[in-house]
Amino acid sequence: PPAYPPAELDRLVSRIALYPDPLLAQILAAATYPDQIPDAARYADEHHYLTGDDLARAIAADHLPWDPSVQALLPFPSVLGMMASDMRWTSDLGNAFLAQEQDVMDAVQAMRRQARDYGYLRSNGQVLVSGGPYITIMPVNPAFVGVPAYDPRVVYYPPRPGFYVGGAIGFGYGVSLGIGFAPWGWGSSHFYWDRHQVYIANAPWGRSWVNRGPYVHPYSGFQRWNGPRGVEHHEEIRRSEAERNAARSGHPRQEEHRGGHDEHPH
After folding, report:
1. pLDDT digit string (tens) for 83-103?
2. SS3 16
3. Residues 6 or more apart whose Cβ sits within 8 Å of residue 130
4. CA-to-CA dists, residue 176 to 12, 173, 179, angstroms
5. What is the pTM of this model?
């Protein structure tokens, strides 16, 4: 198994350490399947106009072959796009989580403490930040998961004189996740920081470097599809640059177009 030193683990988690706990848990699990990320990112980008229950039904109907942990990120095209755009980082993050799960969690806590101590990380209208000893970041509304936008080169270092720390992390962009996404673990994925355990879909995540081949995580109510992909019945419309930039900068989701639900199959 690979062995990452603490400084490298800090670097690996720095861009996601300030994400809300449920989203962070799903990203770490999905990163252990890096070969599936590019195709999933493409699907999320081309179906970004589907949201809520419409997207949940489309994901279920399209018989997608990826692990549920990867499918859980399909409502977040910006997150999957980030992972697909830097596959070396994604693979290293997944390998670190497989081989050094506790060390990865310790690195997340170390980065959160730095961001909190320098005044950047604090509760706002989107997230509740605990005081410790373990720092949790939870959505104010459990059904709405924000995707923070921040620069790791800023939030883990002392602010410059006169710098407004309150604007360093943008939480304007987020995704509504109703009960339709429960089969993928939303609403039941979290950390037990004091035990160094990650729970996905209310079950301890047990995939490690040793058992990464045969391990199958239990998902309540999720039907795995082992056959070929089904016929696509939704129009493929890629996000515009304006839509991508809204997510990158932490601005609210700005849709410029929507596709029909029963467009011509292809």
Report:
1. 999 999 999 999 999 999 999
2. coil
3. 136, 137, 138
4. 27, 10, 10
5. 0.88
